[in-house]
Design brief:
The chain is α/β, with parallel strands linked by helices. It has a single domain, classed as TIM Barrel (Alpha-Beta Barrel), CATH 3.20.20.70. Helix content is about 45%, strand content about 10%. The chain has an 8-stranded parallel beta sheet with strand order 1-10-9-8-7-6-5-4. A two-stranded antiparallel ribbon has the order 2-3. Helix 2 runs parallel beside helix 3 and helix 11 packs across helix 12. The longest helix has 18 residues. The radius of gyration is 18 Å and the shape is globular.
Length: about 300
């Protein structure tokens, strides 16, 4: 029986733990997957931005998807990221994910070329009907440089395979506009430091990288917001915001969230801190700052 796809709750974008270049740390991957599932997440998302999907080779993406499907073992819905400039590579990965038992795909616009919204519409209208699984449209223009604008999302939502939106655009006004245009569409929000505000504006859940670190905290935050427990939600949201400031913000320049999540997972004894190329392992004062912040936040998260 098909699993119910995430409409709300927390769906962590899984880290891809590495032992070396293009070498998956399967034991660490299993620990990350099990601890998030045990915390009560609604689903899992592999090969996303937090999972460094764009930095991985096509062959290694297939390996990661196969291992993830095996480790998840159909306990929760599994979403697979299609973040690629190549339409055909995206299509082939989607077909493989479907044969391995994934449940849905998360699709960004192609990056590199500055596409117009008309270009995006034509591309998506050609590709999505070919895909073998339901599709979440993934808006993350800070990296793709090509947005899914609210009006574009509304048009694409008419395609039967489109089942939801993953919005990491960070624009609450555009989020509210998307909700206005699509009153019944699941919208899973990325920027975790404002999940409370995003759900007030129309988001239904979160796809938050910090849930790799403290999954119980993120599940508790979502549930408090959904239940209308504003005081508790604000307390938990303030703690989540510290992850961004003190862990992601410690790394000097670049994708600090990748360094931050991977270093913090090492400090928690879950996985090592090795990122995918072209990044190199973080050292120096920033690394010590992350360790101190992780320990402090972990102590507070344990009391929720």
């Amino acid at each position: 029986m098909p699993r119910k796809l995430p409409r709300n709750g927390i769906t962590p974008p899984l880290v891809t733990p590495l032992l070396g270049p293009e070498k998956l740390d399967r034991k660490a991957f299993e620990r990350i997957i099990n601890r998030t599932i045990d915390a009560g997440v609604t689903g899992l998302f592999v090969l996303g931005t937090t999972g460094e999907g764009p930095s991985l080779s096509t062959e290694f993406k297939w390996d990661v998807v196969g291992e993830c499907c095996d480790l998840v073992d159909r306990r929760v819905p599994l979403l697979v990221g299609l973040i690629d400039a190549s339409t055909e590579d995206s299509f082939r990965l989607a077909e493989y994910a479907a044969t391995e038992g994934a449940d849905a795909l998360v699709l960004t616009p192609p990056f590199y070329y500055p596409l117009s919204q008309d270009d995006v519409l034509r591309w998506a209208e050609r590709l999505i009907p070919r895909l073998p699984l339901p599709v979440y449209l993934y808006n993350i223009p800070v990296f793709t440089q090509v947005p899914f604008e609210p009006e574009t999302l509304a048009r694409l939502a008419q395609i039967p395979q489109v089942c939801g939106i993953k919005d990491s655009g960070g624009d609450l006004k555009k989020l509210a506009r998307t909700r206005e245009l699509l009153p019944d569409m699941p919208i899973l929000w990325g920027p975790e430091e404002v999940l409370l505000e995003a759900m007030a504006a129309g988001a239904t859940g979160g796809v938050n990288g910090g849930a790799n670190l403290f999954p119980e905290l993120f599940v508790a935050l979502h549930d408090a917001i959904a239940a209308g427990h504003q005081a508790r939600a604000r307390t938990l949201q303030d703690l989540v915001a510290r992850i961004g400031r003190e862990i992601y913000g410690a790394a000097p320049g670049g994708p600090g969230f990748v360094f931050g999540v991977k270093c913090a997972l090492e400090d928690l004894g879950v996985a090592n801190a090795l990122p995918a190329e072209p990044l190199t392992i973080l050292t120096g004062p920033a690394r010590e700052q992350i360790r101190l912040a992780t320990n402090a936040i972990a102590a507070l998260a344990a009391e929720i």
